Amino acid sequence: MIEARQLTKRYGEKTAVDGLDFTVRPGAVTGFLGPNGAGKSTTMRMIVGLDAPTSGTVTVGGRRYAEHTSPLQEVGALLEAKSIHPGRTAFDHLMALAYTHGIPKRRVHEVIEQTGLQSVARKRSGAFSLGMGQRLGIAAALLGDPATVMLDEPVNGLDPEGVLWIRNLLTQLAAEGRTVFVSSHLMSEMALVAEHLIIVGRGRLLADTTVETLVRDAGGDTVTVASADSARLRDLLNGPGILITGQPGSEHLSVTGLSGRQIGTVAAEHGIALYELTQHRVSLEEAFMSLTRESVEYHASIQPARSAA
Ligand SMILES: Nc1ncnc2c1ncn2[C@@H]1O[C@H](COP(=O)(O)OP(=O)(O)OP(=O)(O)O)[C@@H](O)[C@H]1O
After folding, report:
1. What is the rounded radius of gyration, in angstroms, for the C-alpha atoms of the chain?
2. Is the CB of 16 within 6 Å of ligand 1?
3. Which of the residues 195, 197, 200, 296 could staple to 28 if both were Cys, CB 3.0 to 4.6 A apart?
4. Residue 307 gets which letter from DSSP?
5. CA–CA gap between residue 194 and residue 284 (Å, rounded)
6. Does the CB atom of residue 41 touch ligand 1 within 6 A?
């Protein structure tokens, strides 16, 4: 379990993390989402004691990282700028970590297998592809068999097979009862794997929610219905929590709050012919963007085209 209370980090004038309060629970994958520069990496660095909070606290398993006697067994982390000696083999890198943390050699072999590194374990890590480097970083994070696993942008730059592998791994780690905290700026990716979402923008908490609630709050699914008598159908469908829009006289209505099946049933019961019944899923990417729009640090600007001299 990770608990942040009024967690704040300032770099001079810049407030990177601004009074964050959140709890990451075991047994589920929690996505940590926000646009670039939102403060995700800074928060994660504070969780593992690589940066000190300006104020507030963050604990893992009820204690600050530095207070754990064997931190690698408590939290395994893959942070963005992982420094691995390029001349060392993957095996030697993991062995050095294991040796300095009292972890048996057997466990090194286990994580090499778990992360699919068997064939390259004796190769220098400097020659690794991005995907292999990520796997090595994850192997190091899992070495201490930690109750909490924290990964910063683990799918960045990975090919589809690597992305799928990470997805399955995260689900498996959560199913084993671990606390799994994963950052990303890609809503679509997180929606596939995370149950719980913590969304930040400009260092502040924007939402502490679930994928399901986010969809509902974004307006839920909309159904487009075209019928022989849209005025009568509108009256029949109307009710609390239901939003119906459509031009007077048009055969098309746009309905939020009812499923296509419910609308079709009402129409059939009243003998109204339907010409179209289309369900539109709300885009999670849209929901995320509308939530974080105000907090995006770097908006793209379009330069006016220069005329040729
Ligand atoms: N060491 C530092 N000194 C000064 N400013 C910093 C430092 N580290 C981070 N920042 C600033 O703090 C803010 C938050 O940065 P952070 O890297 O935590 O965001 P992020 O959400 O991880 O972004 P990204 O998705 O781009 O990795 C940014 O504006 C960044 O420029």
Report:
1. 25
2. yes
3. 195
4. P
5. 13
6. yes
Ligand 1: nearest atom to the Cα of 35: 25
Torsion of the alpha carbons at 169, 175, 176 and 179, rounded to the nearest 10:
80
CA of 37 to the centre of ligand 1 (A): 5
Nearest CA to ligand 1 atom 29: 37
Number of other CB atoms surrounding residue 158 within 10 Å: 17
Compute the Cα dihedral for 169, 33, 213, 181 and give only its sign.
positive
Closest residue CA from atom 3 of ligand 1: 11
Q: Is 8 in the pocket of ligand 1 (CB under 6 A)?
A: no
Task: Give pTM, 2 decimals.
Answer: 0.80
Q: Nearest C-alpha to atom 1 of ligand 1 is from which residue?
A: 11
12 CA closest ligand 1 atom index = 4
The ipTM (two decimal places) reads: 0.96
- The best mutation among 15, 33, 41 to test binding of ligand 1, ranked by most ligand atoms within 8 Å of the C-beta, falls on 41
List, as one string, the DSSP characters of 195-236.
SEEEEEETTEEEEEEEHHHHHHHTT--EEEEEES-HHHHHHH
* Long-range CB contacts for residues 172-177, cutoff 8 Å, separation at least 24: 173/29, 173/149, 174/27, 174/28, 174/29, 175/27, 177/26, 177/27
